[in-house]
Amino acid sequence: ADNFIGDSYHIPVTHISATRTGFTGNRGAVIGPNAQRRRSFQVRAGDGHGVITQLNPDVDFRWNPEEHPDINAYEKSILEEVERHLGPRAKGIRPGVGTVFPNLSFESFTFRVWHPRGPDRTEVWSFAYIDKDAPPDLKRTMHLYHQRRFGPAGAF
């Protein structure tokens, strides 16, 4: 769970294959000449709790618009509701990753529970979630994305 509260530097190295193939939906967005400038913040709440997020009101959403136009369009469509519930600053904050100590983490549209199973083993339970009011096609897309990215044979 350490990667979820302060280890963002591992992404370009550990996940480079998934990024270069475009599997992540962020082809070239994390590293290289196509990288977008990102203003990332690490927030430490103490006692093992923390979050990494981005304040990027001028940078497009985390999904590659060519590869995931439906996800991008949906996230843009709910910005007014986000502002209504959370205030104007919330519109510019992009979803991030985080951990609630000792073993609950979140990233994208997933929650993960980390279960130690021995000195060298950890079992991870991964749960996907999406807005119940999202269109059915988008729910299917996100379900497949979760399976391919975070499932037993996933790239992350």
Keywords:
single chain; 156 residues; alpha+beta; Naphthalene 1,2-dioxygenase Alpha Subunit, Chain A, domain 1; 6-stranded antiparallel beta sheet; 6 strands; globular; 2 iron, 2 sulfur cluster binding; iron ion binding; dioxygenase
Would you mind describing this structure in some detail?
By secondary structure, the chain is an alpha+beta fold. The chain has one domain: Naphthalene 1,2-dioxygenase Alpha Subunit, Chain A, domain 1, CATH 3.90.380. It is built from five helices and six strands. A six-stranded antiparallel beta sheet has the order 1-2-3-4-5-6. The longest helix is centred in the C-terminal third of the chain and has 15 residues. The radius of gyration is 16 Å and the shape is globular. 14% of the residues are buried.
Range of strand content: 25-35%
Main pleated sheet: 6 strands, antiparallel
Q: Which stretches of 5+ consecutive residues score pLDDT under 50?
A: 27-34
- What's the tally of helices? 5
Strand line-up across the major sheet? 1-2-3-4-5-6
| CATH class term | Alpha Beta
Helix/strand order, N-terminal first: HHEEHHEEEEH
CATH fold title: Naphthalene 1,2-dioxygenase Alpha Subunit, Chain A, domain 1
Estimated radius of gyration: 16 Å
Span between termini: 13 Å
Q: How many domains, as an integer?
A: 1
Query: How many strands in all?
Result: 6
Portion of residues within helices: 25-40%
Q: What's the arrangement of secondary structure elements?
A:
Elements: H1 11-14, H2 16-21, E1 40-46, E2 49-55, H3 69-77, H4 79-86, E3 93-100, E4 104-107, E5 110-118, E6 121-128, H5 136-150
Antiparallel strand pairs: 1-2, 2-3, 3-4, 4-5, 5-6
